[in-house]
Amino acid sequence: MKTTLASSLFTIGLLGSTSAVAQSPLLWHDESITYLYGKNFKIDPAIQQTITLEHASAWTWGDLFVFVDNIWFNGAKSGNGHHNMYGEISPRLSAGKLFNTDLSFGPIKDVLLASTWEFGDDDVDAYLLGPGFDLAVPGFDYFQLNFYYRQPDGDRVRAGAWQITPAWSYTLPLGNSNLVIDGFIDWVVNNKSSSGGKQSDYHANLHFNPQIKYDLGKSLGYEAKHLYVGVEYDYWSDKYGIKDSQVFATDQNTTSLLVKYHF
């Protein structure tokens, strides 16, 4: 694997956070499993079923979010592109927590060092590093805003680029239960025509991926915040950084049915 500045810094951040975990108490954690069924996907086979495992936690050093998508492509032959895996590990180091200092000002609640490792079966590995902010936005359960420099790795020639990633959650009362709207946007804002002296094929792109979920468990009289049903909307312009064209359409616009359970 290539050694890059981004990957080195990510490794340092990840090792630092792992060391801090051994010394610091866990504030809270949440694990969940999600099933998705959707059609009209681009580049990959059009019909997909996905099982997603997620972990989110807060520590005295910052926070951690991890997910792994296991994707099955309907119609693809087993052993020949039938299944794919993709995941992300995203630790963030909190300056406010590490230095025991209140860094809030205006809408900003905390300042963090945000990092992500993207990995999967295909040539998708990338390392992301940059400043992150926790924001106090009225009505929202949480609102994060991360600015990354993303450094791709692997055989495909992809130049580094800047990425802006907001993530949020908003809860609305609905009847005797609640509706949760959460998700993220990954916006790679710039193109580069070359990487290491070679022509790069990575195009600027925008991935908008919210989930709209109804707390079915609460409505049936069970404990709240466990069983959800709903939909996931997925809009991705120039998917995978591949420029959309009349010859090869890469702009994705689809909705999947969703069932999610928090343990």
Architecture overview:
The strands form 2 sheets. Strands 1-2-3-4-5-6-7-8-9-12-13-14 form a 12-stranded antiparallel β-barrel. It has a two-stranded antiparallel sheet with strand order 10-11. It contains 3 helices and 14 strands. It has one domain: Outer membrane phospholipase (ompla), Chain C, CATH 2.40.230.20. The protein has 263 residues and is mainly β. Strand 5 and strand 6 form a beta hairpin.
- The name of the CATH architecture is Beta Barrel
Coarse morphology: globular
Report the sheet with the most strands, covering strand number, pairing sense and barrel closure: 12 strands, antiparallel, barrel
Distance separating the two termini:
36 Å
User: How many runs of DSSP E, i.e. beta strands?
Assistant: 14
The helix/strand class is mainly beta
> Beta fraction of the residues?
over 45%
The figure for the number of domains is 1
Q: What integer value in Å does the Rg equal?
A: 19 Å
What is the class in the CATH system? Mainly Beta
Mean pLDDT: 88
H/I helix tally: 3
The helix-strand sequence is HEEEEHEEEEEEEEHEE
Question: Can you describe this structure in just a few lines?
Answer:
The protein has 263 residues and is mainly β. The chain contains three helices and 14 strands. A twelve-stranded antiparallel beta barrel has the order 1-2-3-4-5-6-7-8-9-12-13-14. A two-stranded antiparallel ribbon has the order 10-11.
